[in-house]
Amino acid sequence: MSTSENDQIYYSAESSRADGSLRGLTRVSASDEDPSESSREGEQINAAASLHFIMDLWTSRAWGTTTRLVLMLVSWCVNINAETCHRPLVSSLSPSSFRSSSQLSSSHGPGFAKLNRREGAGGWSPLNSDKYQWLEVDLGGRTHITSVATQGRYGSSDWQTAYQLMFSDTGHNWRQYRWEGHIGAFPGNSNADTVVQHNLQHPVVARFVRVVPLHWNPSGRIGLRLEAYGCPYNSDTVSFDGDSSLIFSLRPRQTSTNTIRLTFKTTRNSGFLLDAEGQNELGLTLELQDGQLLLILRKGKSSRQHLVSLGGLLDDQHWHRVAVEQHSSHFNLTVDKNTERVEIPPWFTHWDYDQMTVGADQNLDSQNSNRNFHGCVENLLYDGQNLIDLAKQRDQSVTVMGNVTFSCSEPVFIAVTFTGPQSFLRLRGDAGLHSAGTSLGLQFRTWDTEGLLLTFDLPKRDGTVWLHLRDAKVHLQIHKAGRALVELKAGSGLNDGQWHSVDLKSRQHLTVTVDGTEVASASPTYPIAPGGQLFYGGCPDEGSGHSCRNPSGAFKGCMRLLMVEDELVDLIKVQQRLLGDYSDLQIDMCGIMDRCSPSYCEHGGSCTQSWSTFHCNCSSTGYGGATCHSSIYERSCEAYKHRGNTSGYYYIDADGSGPIKPQLLFCNMTEDKTWTVVQHNNTELTKIQPSTEGSQHLTHFEYAVDEEQLMATINQSEYCEQELAYHCRKSRLLNLPEGGPISWWVGGPGAGQRQTYWGGALPGSQQCTCSLQENCVDPKRHCNCDADRTTWANDSGLLTHKESLPVRSLVLRDVRRPGSESSYQVGPLRCYGDKSIWNAAFFAKETSYLHFPTFHGELSADVSLLFKTTSSSGVLLENLGIRDFIRLELSSSTEVVFSFDIGNGPLEVRMKAGVPLNDNRWHRIQAERNVREASLRLDELPAAVQEAPAEGHIHLQLNSQLFVGGTASRQKGFRGCIRSLQLNGVTLDLEERTKVTPGVQAGCPGHCSTYGGLCQNQGRCLEGARSFSCDCSSSAFTGAFCDQEQLEVRYRLESSKEEEILRSKVRSLANGQLHSVSVSRLADSVTIQVDQHSKEHFNLTSGVEFSDIRSLTLGRVHNSQDLDPALAQLGSLGFAGCLSAVLFNSISPLKAALLRPISSSVVVRGPLIRSSCGPAAANPHAAENTHHQPDQSGSAGGGQPLVNALRSDSALIGGLIAVMIFGIASALAILIRFLYRRKGTCQNQELTKTEENRLQFASQSISKYGPTESQKEYFI
Question: Which of 6, 198, 962, 1010 has the CB geometry, 3.0–4.6 Å to 28, for a possible disulfide?
Answer without folding.
Answer: 198
